[in-house]
Amino acid sequence: MSRRPHLPTLNWLRTFESAARHMSFTTAAAELNLTQAAVSQQIKLLEHYLCQPLFQRMPRGLQLTASGMAYLPKVKDALDRLGMATQEVFGQVKEQRIRVRVSGAFGWWLMPRLTRFQQRYPHIELRLSRVQWVPEVRVEDYDLEIRWGPGVWAEPEVVQLTYGQLQPTCAPALLQGEYPLDCMENLQHHRLIHLTGTLSGWSDWFRMAGLPSEQLGSGDQMDSTDFCQMAAMGGMGVMLGLDFLTKDELAKGSLVKLFDLSIASAENFYLIKPQSGPLSPAAQQFSDWLQESLIE
């Protein structure tokens, strides 16, 4: 019986293909999420294994040797075939899995409703991760993102999900006491909850209400909308509640709206498609369900 010839490590071959395609160890390192030193080391190990140099290290870049030029199309073809075989056998499973990055605040609305999505699409597996800011991530790490912000980003597709209004909101207990919040003037006797890093805030509302800025005070600073909402529900003070996120708590009576004055939020929630091309069937179904649920 013939023995199968021993093959180079797959990581060495992937690194060689990337470096040869870009003619750069630095670019290959970025693509493979490795350090440049790791790419260089893997190429050296492959060359040692083959007993042949694959690159000439030039003063200003790389150049393939004759062996490297002959080897590259065969390695690329093998990797492509392996990728297609994997997709053919396991692709359906992957297409039924959705990786969604979700702004933490949006979770107030989303999480109680995900059972409906699960009931409609029981075959789809959700992988949710919470994000607060916009970190540097590779687009292949997620299928969709629900992001809070002004909506000006470079991704291929950005769909606005909400058109929020901000209105003073607090726990029902603050309607009682020595300075009940039944008039705007009594705001000066209560702590204000400020959301840091936002484009719309208490100063905008005070300006619209015609109240003196001296009443703003320092208050409490929090860096996430869900922190602000939990603080307000606990009776810590008054927040500018985003109507989209407070409506469930208002319906339950754990929060109440104050006064009849709201301002438009300069930031909203957006659905981000990070990659060009069509979504997978599962991701498209999630996107359709999400936008349908928002108008119910």
Give a quick precis of the structure.
With 296 residues, this protein is an alpha/beta fold. It is built from ten helices and 13 strands.
Structure in words:
The protein is an alpha/beta fold and 296 residues long. It has three domains: 10-91, Arc Repressor Mutant, subunit A, CATH 1.10.10.10; 96-163 and 268-294, 3-Layer(aba) Sandwich (D-Maltodextrin-Binding Protein, domain 2); 165-264, Periplasmic binding protein-like II (D-Maltodextrin-Binding Protein, domain 2). It has ten helices and 13 strands. It is elongated and about 85 Å long. The protein starts with 9 loop residues before the first helix and ends with a helix. The mean pLDDT is 86.
Structural features:
296 residues, alpha/beta, Arc Repressor Mutant, subunit A, D-Maltodextrin-Binding Protein, domain 2, six-stranded mixed sheet, five-stranded mixed sheet, 10 helices, 40% helix
Largest sheet, strands/sense/barrel: 6 strands, mixed
Low-confidence stretches: none
Sketch the topology as an H/E string, one letter per element. Answer: HHHEEHEHHEEEEEHEHEHEEEH
CATH class of the largest domain: Alpha Beta
Please state the average pLDDT score.
86
**Which structural class do the helices and strands define?**
alpha/beta
> What shape does the CA trace take?
elongated
Helical proportion, percent range? 25-40%
CATH architecture of the largest domain: 3-Layer(aba) Sandwich
Number of strand elements = 13
Strand content: 15-25%
**CATH domain topology of the largest domain:** D-Maltodextrin-Binding Protein, domain 2
Determine Rg (CA atoms, Å).
27 Å
The CATH superfamily of the largest domain turns out to be: Periplasmic binding protein-like II
The domain tally reads 3
